[in-house]
Write a structure and sequence with these properties.
The complex is a heterodimer of chains A (291) and B (277).
Chain A: H1 2-13, H2 21-37, H3 42-56, H4 59-62, H5 67-83, E1 98-104, H6 110-123, E2 128-132, H7 140-150, E3 155-156, H8 163-176, E4 181-185, H9 194-207, E5 211-217, H10 224-235, E6 239-243, H11 253-261, E7 265-269, E8 277-279, H12 282-290
Parallel strand pairs in A: 1-4, 1-5, 2-3, 2-4, 5-6, 6-7
Antiparallel strand pairs in A: 7-8
Chain B: H1 9-21, H2 26-42, H3 48-63, E1 77-82, H4 89-102, E2 107-112, H5 119-130, E3 133-135, H6 143-156, E4 161-166, H7 174-190, E5 197-203, H8 209-221, E6 225-229, H9 239-247, E7 251-255, E8 263-265, H10 268-275
Parallel strand pairs in B: 1-4, 1-5, 2-3, 2-4, 5-6, 6-7
Antiparallel strand pairs in B: 7-8
Classes of the chains: A alpha/beta (291), B alpha/beta (277).
Bound molecules: guanosine-5'-triphosphate (2 copies) and magnesium ion (MG) (2 copies).
């Protein structure tokens, strides 16, 4: 991983005497490559390198007998700090129904994650209602219904209604049926689809969710900044959930999304089963990204 | 878009940024940039437009000749569709089946994703939309059994094209990749020349992990082509350059939307131009 590459870079410089600015810049180039190979978006990589440049040019590195380790230490600290707090502090409505709106691009894992969230909070004593507001994708409603049945959670759907109506009716329904957590699954959509982004805006205005979770596939590459930025600007996200981390993707999208939205990553999806929802550990994510 | 007129470090950086942000990857980008720098020196290129054309030409070379999906085998032509979760396999099958139907071919869809919630129902709706036959078993049944069943039916009913939908699976899951190998073995046992096409479906927004996906799926079932989906987004799909060059797998199809018509043959000229748009 990066550690080995940096050891190699500095090894070549040993015996040359004092480390120079150029030497540090060579080391920073290795960091840049490592982050790009890990799928961190280029603008985020550039910003990150600039943010660690000053510290890397300092005595802490230049006067160390293990400069490679010092650079790694700086990178790790800065990366972990950027990843945010491990506490996933989800916002609950203290008086009444809590609403989660689940949004994101096609195929990212929204429907599955909606099911996972329902199971997670059911185990914590909440009374979730799973709402099928994806009226477009073939069998999307059935998919969520099957998941709801698997975990014995109430399910809400309406035939022939718009997603906005379904969402509003679902919240109405929860008030009279003793459910205190309404989890709304929405259709996958491109951030550049104006009409569908407008639809999400309308859903937000209609049900005032406590949480708007952006579901991001952890294998996404450079496009992560565009997706996250647009969703955040148009909706005001409250959290991100990174999915499919049970694969071997480095997951640089986590850093991109975090940097460009400032939103906390509140959970990670680590499998297809409904119990495969884990808290987000910033230090583990940093280690994974750095390889 | 470069409006740069002369060839200098700023232009090189601009071009490098375009490639990196298109998910072309560090190694392929560095190699391409080294090559064009050398060519500029050797051939004394001075016009930025010529440099861009040079770069685009090299990128097209990485992709090779455009190859389309082969379906004119003695029937039934068997197409196996594989890939990781959520990339667009089922939707691409719906689009492909519709195209085959427009060409006057009889099509049998095979619901071999017996695992994911409502996967069979989803494919059934596409089967109705594309007007095809479909073979399915109960959820939870053995995918290999569904495939076996389908091939018998295809032979009996004299079907032109059989398209097999499989469950999304991460390439790192050994048992799931073994299941896929078994499905492939069943196909070949029942039809020695089949599968005629094994399509790996890749989401255009995928980063460098796409290479891993291609390597492992190729290892498990061999891959004859890529269907690159969701190109209607802002992602450029640059990961296909390395896949084409290192694994020799051509892109055959691109998905450009969620509608039944949103499937095109891969055109490397268009693809490379779009990268620089
Ligand atoms: N391995 C793995 N697969 C996942 C995870 N989360 C979701 N999936 C799978 O990813 C695929 C897509 O999941 P969906 O929940 O249908 O995704 P979606 O965002 O609702 O898709 P659209 O509604 O079409 O936009 C399915 O095969 C899921 O089983 C995860 O954490 N790990
Ligand atoms: N915008 C866009 N969306 C697409 C495209 N192809 C597929 N999709 C969408 O991507 C999502 C996932 O598609 P599926 O066909 O269910 O993907 P899959 O690979 O079969 O998923 P699993 O079976 O769960 O692994 C759906 O919402 C599709 O409508 C495309 O070319 N463009
Ligand atoms: Mg869904
Ligand atoms: Mg599918």
């Amino acid at each position: 991983g990066l550690a080995e590459k940096l050891q190699g870079t500095f090894k070549k410089l040993r015996g040359k005497g004092k480390l120079t600015e150029k030497d540090i810049n060579d080391a920073l180039r290795e960091v840049r490559f490592a982050l790009l190979e890990a799928d961190v978006s280029l603008p985020v990589v550039k910003e990150f390198i600039n943010s660690i440049r000053e510290r890397s040019m300092g005595a802490e590195v230049l006067e160390s007998i293990t400069p490679a380790q010092q650079v790694i230490k700086i990178v790790n600290e800065e990366l972990t700090a950027l990843m945010g707090d491990k506490r996933s502090d989800v916002v609950f409505n203290s008086s009444g129904v809590t609403v989660f709106l689940i949004v994101g691009l096609q195929g990212g894992g929204k429907t599955t994650t909606a099911g996972k969230l329902a199971l997670h909070y059911k185990k914590q004593g909440k009374h979730p209602l799973l709402v099928a507001a994806d009226i477009y994708r073939p069998a999307a409603v059935q998919q969520l219904e099957v998941l709801a049945k698997q975990i014995d959670v109430p399910f809400f759907a309406l035939e022939g209604e718009t997603p906005v109506t379904i969402a509003t009716e679902a919240v109405e329904h929860s008030l009279s049926h003793g459910q205190d957590l309404v989890i709304i699954d929405t259709a996958g959509r491109l951030h550049v689809d104006e009409e569908l982004m407008e639809e999400l805006q309308e859903m937000k205005d209609a049900v005032a969710p406590q949480e708007i979770f952006l579901i991001v596939d952890s294998m996404i590459g450079q496009d992560a900044v565009n997706i996250a930025k647009t969703f955040h600007e148009e909706l005001g996200l409250t959290g991100v959930i990174l999915t499919k981390l049970d694969g071997d993707t480095r997951g640089g999208a986590a850093l991109s999304v975090r940097k460009v939205t400032g939103c906390p990553i509140k959970f990670v999806g680590s499998g297809e089963k409904l119990d495969a929802l884990d808290p987000f550990y910033p230090d583990r994510m940093s280690a994974r990204i750095l390889g | 878009v470069t409006v740069h007129k002369k060839i200098d470090e700023e232009l090189y950086e601009e071009l490098e940024d375009i490639l990196l942000q298109a998910d072309v990857g560090v190694a392929a980008t560095c190699r391409l940039m080294d090559e064009i720098r050398q060519d500029v020196k050797k051939r004394k290129i001075s016009d930025a437009a010529d440099l861009r054309n040079l770069l685009q030409g090299k990128m097209k070379e990485l992709l090779g000749e455009d190859v389309s999906l082969q379906t004119d085998f003695p029937p039934p032509t068997v197409i196996l569709v594989v890939g990781v979760n959520g990339v667009g396999k089922t939707t691409t099958i719906g689009k492909l089946a519709y195209r085959m139907r427009q060409e006057g071919k009889s099509v049998l869809m095979v619901a071999a994703d017996t695992y994911r919630a409502a996967a069979i129902e989803q494919l059934e709706i596409w089967s109705e939309r594309a007007d095809t036959e479909i073979i399915k078993h109960m959820p939870g049944s053995d995918p290999a059994a569904v495939v076996f069943d389908a091939i018998q039916a295809a032979k009996k009913r004299d079907i032109d094209v059989v398209i097999i939908d499989t469950a999304g699976r991460l390439h790192t899951k050994v048992n799931l990749m073994e299941e896929l190998k078994k499905v492939r073995r069943v196909i070949t046992r029942e039809l020695p020349d089949a599968p005629h096409e094994v399509l790996l479906v890749i989401d255009a927004a995928t980063g460098q992990n796409a290479m891993r996906q291609a390597e492992l799926f190729k290892e498990a079932t061999d891959i004859t082509g890529i269907a690159l989906t969701k190109l209607d987004g802002t992602a450029k799909g640059g990961i296909v350059f390395a896949i084409s060059e290192e694994l020799g797998i051509p892109v055959k199809l691109v998905g450009t939307g969620e509608g039944i018509d949103d499937l095109d043959d891969f055109d490397s000229d268009e693809f490379v131009s779009a990268l620089f748009a």
